[in-house]
Amino acid sequence: MKIKPTYKMPFRRRREGKTDYKRRLRLLLSKKPRLVVRKSLKYIRAQIVEFNKKGDRTLVFAISKQLKNFGWNYSCDNLPASYLTGLLVGKRASEKGVKEAVLDLGLNPSTKGSRIYACVKGALDAGLKVNVSEEVLPSEERIKGMHISTYIQKFKNIPEDFEKVKKKILGE
Question: What residues pair up with 104 in beta bridges, in sequence order?
Fold first, then answer.
C-alpha cells in the first residue's frame, strides 16, 4: 500500500533560497536572452544567457576581475568597476550579434543607483538594448568615481584611469 504525502515539497533551489521560479518563468516567456548580473563581496559578474531545454547557455561572460587586464588598478566591487564590467559584456555581446536582452536581477533587490544598475548602464552604453528606466541608473558623476576620489586622497586618479580603461574596452 502506497502512502501519498499530504504536502508538496518545493524545488530544492527554492528551498535553499537560490531561485525564484515565478520570476524566472516571466523572464523566459519574453524569449529574449537575459542579462544576468550577480554581485559578490569582491566582484561583479555579468553574463548574456539564453534558455535551452537542456540547460541555459552562456553566450557572453565578463567579471570585474578581468578589468585588471585593461589597466584597472582599483577595487573590483565599486560603482566604476561595475560600469566597466557592463561595458565589457555589452561590447562582447555586440560582437556576438546580441542586440537586446532582458535584465535578470536574481534574488537581489532592485535598488536605485546600485552596482547592478551601474553594470546595466555600461551594457546600455556599449549598445545593448535593455528595457530599464533611466531614473534607476546611477549618475554620471558616481559612475566615474568622483564620489570616491573626493573623500579618499589615494584614489584621486580614479576618474582619469576610468576614462583610460573605458577607451581600451571600446577599442579607441
Answer: 36
User: Cα(62)–Cα(122) distance, rounded to whole angstroms?
Assistant: 12
Q: Which CATH class is domain 32-170?
A: alpha beta
DSSP string, 129-141: EE---GGGSPPHH
Q: Give Cβ neighbours of residue 146 (< 8 Å, ≥ 6 apart).
A: 158, 159
Q: How confident is the model at residue 46 (pLDDT cuts 50, 70, 90)?
A: very high
Mean pLDDT, range 18-32, rounded to an integer: 79
Q: 130: pLDDT confidence band, cut at 50, 70 and 90?
A: very high
Other beta carbons within 10 angstroms of residue 111's beta carbon come to 11
How far, CA to CA in Å, does 95 sit from each of 40, 58, 170?
Answer: 27, 15, 11
Q: Indicate the residue type of 90.
A: G
**Residues 80 and 145: beta-carbon distance below 8 Å:** yes
- pTM (2 decimals)? 0.86
Q: Is the pLDDT of residue 20 over 80?
A: no
Segment 105-116, tens digit of pLDDT? 887 888 999 999
Contacts of 141 (CB under 8 A, 6+ apart): 147
If one counts every other C-beta atom within 10 angstroms of the C-beta of residue 103, the result is 18
